[in-house]
Amino acid sequence: MTGEGDDGSQYTGAPVDFDRLTLVGERLATDDRFAEVTEQPAFAPDRLVCVYDRRFYPAHVHTARLEIVWFENGDFSLQYHEEHERGTFDHRWDRHPSDHNARDHVHPGPDAPTPGDDDTHPADWRDVLTMVLSAIESRQRAFWEA
Which residue intervals make up region (Disordered) (predicted)? Predict the structure, then answer.
């Protein structure tokens, strides 16, 4: 069964792959771009939440985080979220069955609309993670190049 969660995330009916989230969390916890990496926080018990270090952002960006959920069938949702003085920025990369998009798709910033844009994501989870982290790094660099 596919359904949409209260926060807009998609659920595929497959169990959450907590072993994969632990592995990703261990990898990202050693990455100095993150100030905090938390598995299954109370507000998101099916996710890994990675809070970016403030030094990557100008003062008008108060916080930035990446929330990751991975399912045992290979489906996933990685949502990047920034809180600004005047609002928020959200961008989400998804792989799941959908009535509104192809299985692989993105909900682009600034507001991650549904429907999103059909896309193709790498097959291997490590390549997906690299793709997402690279896209976020490009956004971070753009703050300083503007």
Answer: 87-123
